[in-house]
Amino acid sequence: MELEILDIHKVFGKRIVLDGVSISALSGSCIGILGRNGCGKSTLLSIIAGITRADRGQVLWQGKDISKKRTLGSKIVGYVPQGTPLMDELTAVDNLRLWYDKIELVRSLESGVLAELGIGEFLKTPVNKMSGGMKKRLSIGCSVANDPPVLLLDEPTAALDMPCRSTIYSYLEGCKKAGKILILTTHTPEEFALCDKLYVLKDGTLKECNMNASTEEIAKLL
Fold first, then answer.
1. What does pTM read for this prediction?
2. Exposure string over 104-128, b if 16+ CB within 10 A, otherwise e
3. pLDDT per residue over 47-88, tens digit each?
């Protein structure tokens, strides 16, 4: 399976955010996108997810353009944004019920992705009482309810403690082994190890980075 992002352009006002960005990924691979705050990383993920419309370009899944077909795209792409997409006043389990049917929810909590993410530990906790790590794990759990083959994560472990990071890293490694495609934005060197390719987004363009480069060398490219 292959995901192709072809010649993506996006302008906000007079500012060119994405200027002909192209990238491709195969099953079982993880791509990391680095860049300074505000460089357009989140915009790129939002376009791939079908939430933001590109001014020009295509998002192809198995050769078919899904960029203008939100219903189709949502079956293929799971998206975990930086901010929480959760309902603050609801508990974890009530949020999950918006995404899972009853049978699948029970199965996943017992032996599926929700169990792997440890969400059973805080099912009755309202979102507005959760830690950042709980919210992030729940957000991932909701985003993969329909088992999409592509998962986009916008800085998935930013500001999280080490145990929570470890849980998420373990889950993402499992996704790769299961043949899923991962694309994540990151500022975290520990996440580089998850990636098969690293790209730097700067001045609207995407350039591949040497995987053997040091953190200091990568920082100079940003």
1. 0.94
2. bbeebbeebbbebbbbeebeebbbe
3. 999 999 999 999 999 999 998 777 778 899 999 999 888 999
Instruction: Assess if CATH 3.40.50.1360 describes domain 2-221.
Output: no
The CA–CA distances, whole Å, from 65 to 9, 50, 54, 59 equal 16, 11, 13, 5
Tokens of residue 108, six digits: 């996943």
Host H or E run for residue 5: strand 2-12
User: Which amino acid does the sequence have at 82?
Assistant: Q
Terminal Cα distance for the chain, rounded: 31
Is the Cβ–Cβ distance between 92 and 130 less than 8 Å? yes
Lowest mean pLDDT among 137-146, 170-179, 194-203, 211-220: 211-220
